[in-house]
């Protein structure tokens, strides 16, 4: 997941990289699963370099990546070269970033999706590559959404423990995520833990307050329905002492 980018073969680390930028090139190609123009990859790795110097450095970098990826196999097995560069995925080459994208984009209830989402890291490592930074931001935004939608599905099919785990994980990544909070409140209520549902609501309100926001009307209505708290005036009354977080 673009933490420390690595190549493993049979569960064991591949050979030494030989050139640090080869690792960055692999990250670029993982992000651009359809491929990337050689010129664009060169500019991303060696911005502002003299054309001849940049081309020479890029050629060495591409060779170093090929040595790591294709040790023991024919040239071109996993790495398409030329004016267009591309990783050739398949049964013998898996890219965990691509697998993560597939799980994030799959419909709720897809077999294996809940476990995959729960295992995903919430953040990717810092990088100076703009394309990889954009991928990290996209991932950070999509993962809580996917967890919350999966939690909603788990609730609908009666998997309350799973729903609570999924929603709780989403809130650990984004404490102000209201769909996740509503799912967790429903899960706690269905498991006969009204105090936990109230704590979830209180934590959500606090997280939203830090952003200068308040809960949506549907969240407030759910809180009142689950806890029996009646609304008085423009705001919700304080939670009872025994349900305070």
Automatic annotation (TrEMBL):
Membrane-spanning ranges: none
Superkingdom in the source lineage: Bacteria
Domain Bacterial transcriptional activator: from-to ranges: 95-227
Gene3D superfamilies cross-referenced by the UniProt entry: Tetratricopeptide repeat domain
InterPro entries: AfsR-DnrI-RedD_regulator (IPR051677), BTAD (IPR005158), TPR-like_helical_dom_sf (IPR011990)
SMART domains given in the database record: BTAD
Pfam families attached to this UniProt entry: BTAD (PF03704)
Protein name per the record: Bacterial transcriptional activator domain-containing protein
Species name: Deinococcus aetherius
